[in-house]
Design goal:
By secondary structure, the chain is of the alpha/beta class. The C terminus is likely disordered. α3 runs parallel beside α6. The protein has ten helices and ten strands. β9 and β10 form a beta hairpin. Helices cover about 35% and strands about 20% of the residues. The protein folds into two domains: about 190 residues, 3-Layer(aba) Sandwich (Rossmann fold); about 90 residues, no CATH class.
């Protein structure tokens, strides 16, 4: 059953079509990768799907609800979370507080009963902290610790450390943990292994496999094509804002249009790409074993 439906989506920037008439469906529990050369429109597509930008034309529906024109916070209310191509964390905040921010849509006790009171009511609740607010805060902190434990000893021992003190890879893990704190129904990952060495890439691959095996719906942008081929149920290829191919990884990897988009007209030949020789310099390790005993989020 399709949980996400994108129909004829376009985004025009002063005459430049960054996304040009793209349609895509994503089924619940499916992992779909969006690939293509730099400038293909992949991140712009993610920005449209998460409310950071608005389409020039086209429609987006999530679980039967229209997303077209909604703000990012409204999309988060539907359970849509994302990470960014260039990791974004709050450097002066602790790991714990960074991840707690991701749970903001699930807070109920501190929300004003009268909408007009808005920030005044939230400020009062934050200062006074009635029992219901303290109980909710304690439950959310416990959930955050459970999420951080999924990364082994990478983050949990650093719970109270400021994010600026972390390594690059750990800041990326904090960003992913923050997205998971939303308890998303759809998680968009924009190049989650960018800038990581082979060991870090392998760990991230294992982590995404765990999310996939738990049934989380994933939409992934990634340049490491071997990782894409091993993770994806389907692959959509973009070039110059347009969708040029879509299908299962084994078919897409040998599509002449895809080879041409990555290698250029002179090098492009309608011949299969040998397994393990994709046009990318970072190769992920073979599929890791996933611990089946880890509890569901």
């Amino acid at each position: 059953m399709s949980i996400l439906e994108i129909t004829n989506l376009s985004r025009n920037f002063d005459g430049v079509l960054a996304v040009d008439d793209v349609s895509l469906t994503v089924d619940e529990g499916e992992t779909v990768s969006v690939i293509g050369p730099n400038g293909a429109g992949k991140t712009t597509l993610f920005n449209l799907l998460t409310g950071l930008d608005r389409p020039t034309q086209g429609n987006m529906r999530f679980d039967g609800h229209s997303l077209t024109g909604l703000r990012a916070d409204q999309m988060a209310d539907y359970g849509i979370a994302r990470t960014f191509q260039h990791g974004r964390v709050f450097g002066n905040m602790s790991v714990l507080d960074n991840v707690l921010i991701g749970a903001h849509t699930r807070r109920r006790a501190a929300r004003p009963s009268v909408r007009a009171l808005g920030l005044v009511s939230e400020l009062f609740m934050g200062i006074v902290q009635p029992p219901a607010v303290r109980a909710e805060e304690g439950a959310l902190r416990q959930e955050v610790e459970e999420i951080l434990s999924l990364f082994g000893d990478r983050l949990l021992p650093r719970l109270q450390q400021p994010a600026y003190s972390l390594s690059y890879a750990n800041r990326r893990r904090v960003e992913m943990a923050r997205a998971l704190a939303l308890k998303p129904r759809l998680l968009l990952l924009d190049e989650p292994t960018a800038g990581m060495n082979p060991t870090e890439t392998g760990e991230m691959l294992e982590f995404i496999y765990m999310l996939k095996e738990r049934g989380l719906t994933l939409l992934l942008i990634e340049h490491k094509l071997e990782l894409v081929m091993r993770l994806s149920d389907r692959v959509m290829v973009m070039d110059n804002g347009q969708k040029i191919a879509e299908g299962v990884p084994q078919v897409v990897r040998n599509d002449p249009r895809v080879i041409e988009a990555y290698l250029g007209h002179k090098q492009a030949r309608p011949t299969p790409i040998p397994a393990g020789n994709e046009p990318d310099h970072d190769i992920a390790p073979s599929r890791p074993m996933i611990d089946p005993t880890v509890a569901a989020l």
